[in-house]
């Protein structure tokens, strides 16, 4: 069966309509909205999928939404963006209201233009040139970890790693050394962490009351936004001033922001001021939250799967030799086991387990007729819905990524290929995240430093229970802490 139609499809060929699809019963006028638990919304959607099947219907007020968890259909939707599918208009409006109006929210020809310009800033050659800055920030992280290892103190893992990722993003992307690791009162960090919870609330609101009546929380949020925008425009102004003083930076930029300002498309067009600010805002948010939370989950899963952790330690010892952290871009790229572990963590604990989208043209999805603009929710975590005991899709097994990498294995293990194709931590198709290489490089640096220098004594919550998954636009582990000790001289390979 052709599961997703072409733009010229005839909806009369479908045998089902959205109204025919079963789902949880909602309230009059309000639909299922009063039943939503926003802090656990992704888990709630997955639980309903286990009850009603991999395709079911929800009502957001008076609007129907189709929820899809089948990996083949989710992957097909991602592959067909941006031509066939776009971000949910409600979400785009909320993002634009707060100033995130760049590549993340762009669609159509505007997206294609910005994509070319932003991708030029994330070229691997640029990342290699920025590596010394990344190493400097990572050395500061090691100093903090050394202190924690010497005292045996518990580390607030999310707090620590968010400061690290903000420092990396501001240094590599903007040429600004804000050093939140050693200056915890830095204003940027204090304002950024207010954004995602508010986005979660506003995206799922039945009525955009903040547009008509500002609650105290909205007024406080506006103050945080004002400070963020002030800092971003200062970053941009400083970058423009550096380029004006040294025009050679157009050809040889020293950071991603300079590269973005210098990049132009084939017609000679540049990003305008609002587009630059929107993309900088996006990089700050994505650079702080998604990478830090993925690192949290990866450290937790490696701690609870000691064989996988020992494989990481062995590889890091071999690649780094006497060094205590990766000293070159090339050394970091050799850490394949770390990449496999992070990829497996992102598959099982994706920071974006729910995606909202609308179709750009009449579509037949698995024999269901979807008129243009139908609200579709994609659940991206394989194994969360289909709990087949014969499948290992829900197991943490980084080695699967190494096995599937070989062409022979790809031919022999189609079931494993399906598991990996269902994983879309950086999106899929043309709209794959342009910052994915930077994110993976950061994760390799952090995990290499931890594996090379410390034993994982404990990674868990205060009460010793598995961390609870919380949703605040992205999904994060609540209350995850880590305790480490320095590796003995005999445990470190020389």
Molecular structure report:
A hairpin with a 2-residue loop joins strand 7 and strand 8. This protein has a domain at 1-87 and 354-394. The model is unreliable at 489-494 (pLDDT under 50). It has helices at 41-52, 71-79, 89-97, 108-121, 124-151, 157-174, 187-192, 195-203, 216-245, 256-262, 273-304, 306-320, 329-333, 336-348, 399-405, 407-412, 414-421, 436-453; strands at residues 16-17, 55-60, 63-68, 85-87, 155-156, 354-359, 363-365, 368-370, 375-379, 454-460, 468-472, 474-478, 481-486. The chain is globular. A 5-stranded mixed beta sheet has the order 2-3-9-6-4, sandwiched between helices. Helix 11 runs parallel beside helix 18 (436-453) and helix 12 packs antiparallel against helix 14. With 494 residues, it is α+β, with helices and mostly antiparallel strands. The protein is built from 18 helices and 13 strands.
What key phrases describe this protein's structure?
494 residues, single chain, five-stranded mixed β-sheet, three-stranded mixed β-sheet, disordered C terminus, alpha+beta, 50% helix, globular
Percent of residues in β-strands: 5-15%
In round numbers, the mean pLDDT is 85
Q: What's the total count of β strands?
A: 13
- Shape type: globular
Which ranges are low-confidence, i.e. pLDDT below 50, for 5 or more consecutive residues? Answer: 489-494
Largest sheet: 5 strands, mixed
